[in-house]
Amino acid sequence: MPDAAPRRLADSALPASAHPGEAAVRRQARRAVYERMEARAEEQRRSFLRMVSHELRTPLKSILGFSELIAAEIYGPVGAREYKEYATLIRDSGQKLLALANQVLEIARLDSGTADLAAGREPLDHVLDDVLDSLAEVIQSRRAEVVIEGQGTLPDIVADPRGVRTALTALLSNALVHGPEGGKVKISAQNQDGGVTLIMTDQGPGVPPQDIPRLLKPFEQGENALIRRGEGAGLGLPLAYMLCRSMGGGLSLAPGPEGGLKVTIRLAAPAA
């Protein structure tokens, strides 16, 4: 009869792979440590974004205020005509930076679940009027045409007043910036399946179908960053997507029927 001691010694010397239960425990432990590290890193990233966005807004407001005073010559002529022009450029650049800081801060709040959204009944006609007013200069500079089908008879929606305006402004701004000069953006809305479906199409260069999912990720672009024509950090579409989801709706992207991009927004409708 063979000696049992050598067998016991041999069993104890087996590699970890020969003990599935222990290996599984070690894998779970490593996974738990990795997940904790990822969670800490994610929270640090969100905190950093909130802090940077907040700290940027304070000096930018001063830059905007004083540049507007100089450009308007509130306290008298500034002398050479170029100084007034430079003050206007400073103001415009400051407004772009402030918009970017606001977008980053809003995304950080939505991502962390701390955004303060309160849904209420909103006439979609009034919402789109406000959006068009806020983008009047961009529309004029791009010589674009914004066509709203059924304007004046659009359905009401249930959404956060600021959130829905921010989302639609970001979407329309994206369509204008990436569309051609003199292009057209079409907007339509209808009651559908107990909610309101809003569709926005533009005449931009379009995006390959395989690239569409990444457009909903912050800081992504539809073009190579080295050759892209449009400005911006790629936050408009992700911000609109996150806002629509936070308001109980949704947003999806698809190639437009005549090129460009088709954006489908789903929003809640008032109870009958």
Keywords:
272 residues; alpha+beta; Heat Shock Protein 90; two-stranded antiparallel ribbon; 7 strands; 15% strand; globular
Question: Layout of SSEs?
Answer:
Layout: H1 4-12, H2 20-72, H3 81-112, E1 120-123, H4 124-134, H5 136-141, E2 145-148, E3 156-159, H6 161-178, E4 184-192, E5 195-201, H7 236-246, E6 250-255, E7 261-268
Description of the structure:
- It is built from 7 helices and 7 strands, in the order αααβααββαββαββ.
- The protein is of the alpha+beta class and about 270 residues long.
- It folds into 2 domains: about 80 residues; about 150 residues, Histidine kinase-like ATPase, C-terminal domain (Heat Shock Protein 90).
- α2 packs antiparallel against α3, α3 crosses α7 and α6 packs antiparallel against α7.
- The radius of gyration is 26 Å and the shape is globular.
- It starts with a helix and ends with a strand.
Total of DSSP H or I helical runs spanning 4+ residues: 7
Rounded to the nearest angstrom, the radius of gyration is 26 Å
SS class: alpha+beta
Architecture per CATH nomenclature, i.e. the level-2 architecture of the largest domain: 2-Layer Sandwich
* Number of DSSP strand runs: 7
The named CATH superfamily of the largest domain: Histidine kinase-like ATPase, C-terminal domain
Runs in which pLDDT lies below 50 for 5 or more consecutive residues are: 4-14, 223-230
Dominant shape: globular
Oligomer description:
single chain
Give the CATH topology of the largest domain. Answer: Heat Shock Protein 90
Distance between the termini: 87 Å
What is the domain total for the residues? Answer: 2
